[in-house]
Specification:
Blueprint lengths: L11 H21 L7 H16 L8 H11 L7 E3 L8 E3 L4 H19 L1 H8 L2 E2 L2 E2 L3 H7 L2 H19 L4 H13 L3 H6 L4 H23 L6 H17 L4 H20 L8 H26 L20 H9 L6 H4 L6 H10 L4 H19 L18 H5 L2 H8 L3 H23 L2 H15 L9 H14 L5 H13 L6 E2 H5 L6 E2 L13 H9 L5 H22 L4
Antiparallel strand pairs: 1-2, 3-4, 5-6
Helix pairs in contact: 1-7, 1-8, 1-26, 2-4, 4-6, 7-8, 7-10, 8-19, 10-11, 10-12, 11-12, 11-13, 12-13, 12-17, 14-17, 16-19, 20-23, 21-22
């Protein structure tokens, strides 16, 4: 094994390098982010934020979009993740999604409101347009709330740098681990979107990095900083409030924190019990759990009812275990081997760590693999539906990725190892970029139309929606419809100046001459990019986006220079 692999204490240069990676990723994410919600669930989450700020309530209402969502749900048409309130709130409707989303988005919404007052003409033009037949509102609030995922996605990449350094990676390899996570995996398409998985991922991984920091100080005989312990508990609570289904992973990290604190206590003078660290670490998480129970009681009349009701039960997790496992790992449309191929070399770190006698972090990663991976491969919606890649297992990805900093150092010593790293990084970059240049919903829209041509007799006697769901699942396992490569064919068609009319024969290799087009204006061309939408639809300023990208790029470069000069390792 390489002699340089050793535990590292994070130094000022490492933090500067982490900020450099953050600015670099954020610059690229800002250049490609969606801004406005890219699917119905994300719009519901935004409307919950809007209601919370405007009315101090989680009940939807007060905007054209919210009224349309409530109207559809009131008619009994389940087009959105919305449920009627419980006793005393029967006439109100609430999101199924976790309350962590609107709570974190609260300050971004306020900032958007301020921008709306600065640019009233843009807001007025936005209100004069419609989407899917529904009037629009709150443009800048949507835009600024849409910045949450780019910010948190970039933060996750920066945290990977710190975690990789603590695992023993050299500084360059730690930076490469953070950058490849952000640009050579489906974390990039996820970060440019607006769903909750990016926030849950960032919160869960932040809790891990903070507990590592607390342990680092205790093991050096220094008292843990209150901010680190409080941050751990808060991050853990936010992860739970964002996606309640991550409760097993939250429990694993809580146990890891407890074990590390108790182990550190044994190395302290007799009688030194880590009560302070335990209270500071767990109090915020328990407060978040209490908030979860209270809001459920207020909304649905039951502290354990979050709105899903009978939609999700035990049988939900036992319907398609083999399909989900194959789908998440190797399927052409959602497999990790295509959309995050560098995770394959994490095994190099695993073997190295075990040979050196390390047990704590490898066991933690294994426990999280079970806690996050198993529940999400058992359910019928393992694919994540409205997303590019298996978004439900995104919270697991940083835990599999930070060890790459060590794996890069080991593999780079051999020619075959260098070839493997470069090939997998290139594959990941190509599949990630495809999910950015062409919005996932564009391929979803077109593939639904083509699937009806490919499998016209599927579900003949069932509900059309059920038939479409079966066709959708087939596209995940059919290489002709696979998102990464279909996206690039759509992009090539557009770059050739052939417009938005596609032949199913050329696009999906079907033996048919049917022609299809995106059914929604947003799915055409580059309208899915926030800055393109601002310029074309709203005649807004075109300089803001490029200026922010350039400034962040310069900041990344300066921070990288300062990191190279600070306490070199």
């Amino acid at each position: 094994m390489s002699p340089f692999i050793r535990a590292q204490n994070v130094q000022s240069g490492d933090r500067l390098l982490g900020w450099s990676v953050f600015c670099c990723l954020l610059a690229i994410y800002l250049a490609t982010f969606a801004g406005l919600p890219d699917n119905p669930d994300a719009e519901v989450e935004f409307q919950t934020t809007s209601a919370l700020v405007r009315t101090q309530s989680f009940a939807l209402g007060g905007t054209p979009e919210a009224e349309a969502i409530v109207g559809i749900t009131h008619q009994g048409r389940q087009g959105y993740n919305v449920a009627r309130g419980g006793p005393g709130c029967e006439q109100e409707f609430f999101s199924w999604s976790g309350i962590g989303q609107p709570l974190v988005a609260f300050p971004l919404y306020i900032a958007g409101s301020f921008l709306g007052r600065l640019f009233p003409a843009v807001e007025e033009r936005h209100r004069a347009t419609t989407h899917l037949g529904v009037g629009r509102s709150e443009y800048f609030e949507h835009l600024l709330v849409g910045l949450r995922n780019p910010l948190l996605g970039a933060l996750t990449g920066a945290l990977i740098v710190l975690a990789a350094r603590r695992a023993g990676a050299r500084r360059l390899h730690a930076a490469l681990a953070g950058l490849t996570y952000g640009l050579a995996s489906y974390a990039w398409p996820q970060a440019r979107g607006t769903l909750s998985d990016v926030q849950a991922t960032a919160a869960l991984f932040l809790a891990f990095v903070l507990t590592q920091g607390v342990s680092e100080r205790l093991e050096r005989g220094k008292p843990a900083r209150a901010g680190g312990a409080l941050g751990f508990g808060t991050a853990l609570g936010v992860a739970f409030l964002t996606r309640t289904v991550l409760a097993p992973a939250v429990a694993v990290l809580a146990l890891y924190y407890l074990v590390r604190r108790m182990r550190a206590a044994r190395e302290q003078p007799p009688g030194r019990f880590p009560l302070r660290e335990l209270v500071l670490g767990f109090a915020p998480a328990l407060l978040c759990f209490g908030l979860y129970l209270w809001t459920n009681q207020r909304r649905f009349g039951d502290p354990l009812e979050s709105g899903y009701g009978g939609v999700v039960g035990l049988s939900w997790f036992l319907r398609s275990p083999l399909e989900g496992l194959v789908g998440v790992t190797v399927s052409p449309g959602s497999g990790l081997v295509w959309l995050a191929p560098l995770v394959l070399i994490a095994t190099v770190w695993w073997v190295s760590a075990l040979r050196r006698g390390e047990r704590g972090v490898p066991l933690l990663v294994l426990a999280l693999l079970i806690a996050i991976g198993v529940p999400h491969v058992l359910i019928p919606s393992w694919h994540g539906a409205w997303s590019y890649g298996p978004r439900y297992v995104l919270p697991l990805l940083p835990f599999l990725w930070f060890p790459l900093g060590v794996a890069f150092g080991i593999l780079w010593e051999r020619a075959l190892g260098r070839i493997a790293v470069l090939a997998l990084a290139l594959l990941g970059g190509v599949t990630a970029l495809g999910g950015v240049l062409v919005e996932y919903n564009t391929n979803l829209d077109l593939s639904f139309q083509a699937a009806r041509v490919a499998w016209p007799t599927v579900g003949e006697l069932s509900d059309p929606a059920v038939a479409d769901e079966e066709r959708f699942l087939r596209t995940k396992f059919d290489w002709r419809f696979a998102a990464p490569w279909a996206h690039w064919r759509i992009f090539r068609h557009r770059m050739a100046g052939m417009g938005e009319n596609y032949s199913v024969r050329e696009l999906y290799y079907l033996d048919d001459d049917t022609r299809i087009e995106p059914t929604v204006e947003r799915h055409r061309g580059f309208n899915h990019l926030a800055w393109v939408d601002l310029a074309r639809r709203l005649d807004g300023p075109t300089w803001i986006g490029p200026l922010l990208v350039v400034l962040l790029g310069l900041a990344s470069f300066v921070l990288a220079l300062r990191a190279s000069e600070a306490d070199l390792a």
